[in-house]
Amino acid sequence: MSWKNSKPISEASGPSRAASGALGSACVRSILNWGCGPSLAFLMQSTPLAALSCAPWNGAQAYLAAAQSDRTYSVVVGRLQFDEGLLPLTEGGDPNELQPSTSIPGTLSGKILEARHFSRRISTDVTLVVDCVAGWCGKVQSGARYLMFVEQGTAGPVLRVTPCGDFIFPDGSAVRRQVLDCHRGVNCQPE
After folding, report:
1. Alpha-carbon distance 148 to 80, whole Å?
2. β-bridge pairing 118-133 and 101-113
3. Residues 140-174: pLDDT tens digits?
C-alpha cells in the first residue's frame, strides 16, 4: 500500500496562491534552502555565543507554505520511530563540527490526511533530515506523536526537522483544527 495520499496538499483545492501570497512574500528563505518556514534571525557575535530566534509558526502557516511549495507534501498524524543516538549532538560539542544536515532512517505510522479527514492508516519507512545551523539542530523524539508535513521524495517519504520546527508539530487538537480548516477551505489564516 502506498504511503502517499491520492491528493497531496500542494495539489489540493485549498487556499489559492493569491489569497495566501502575503505569507510567501514575508517568508525568509534560509541559506540551507529550508523553504518557506519560520523566519530565522541570527545574531552572530565575535564571541562563541550566538542567538537563534524562531518566529511563531502554526499549522495554518505550515499548510500555506507547503501548498505554495514546488515540492509535494502529505500531512500525517502519527508516531515517528528512529534511533535517537543518530541525532546530531549539540551540547558540549563544537558547533563548527556539526554537519548542516544528518539523514536518519526511521518509520512512520499513523493516519494520512485525505479529502476531508485523517482517515487512511499508513506505516512506512521515512528519512528524517535533521538540519543544524550555528550549533542549533532540529529536535524530535522517537515514539512521540506528531502532526507532520512529509515530503513525497523520489526515493520515498522525507521529514525535514529544522531548528525552528517548520513542518513538524506536537500532535494536538489546535494544530489539527488549523490544518483541517485550511484543507477544507474553511479558514486558513496565519495568525
Report:
1. 10
2. antiparallel
3. 999 999 999 999 988 999 999 998 888 999 999 99
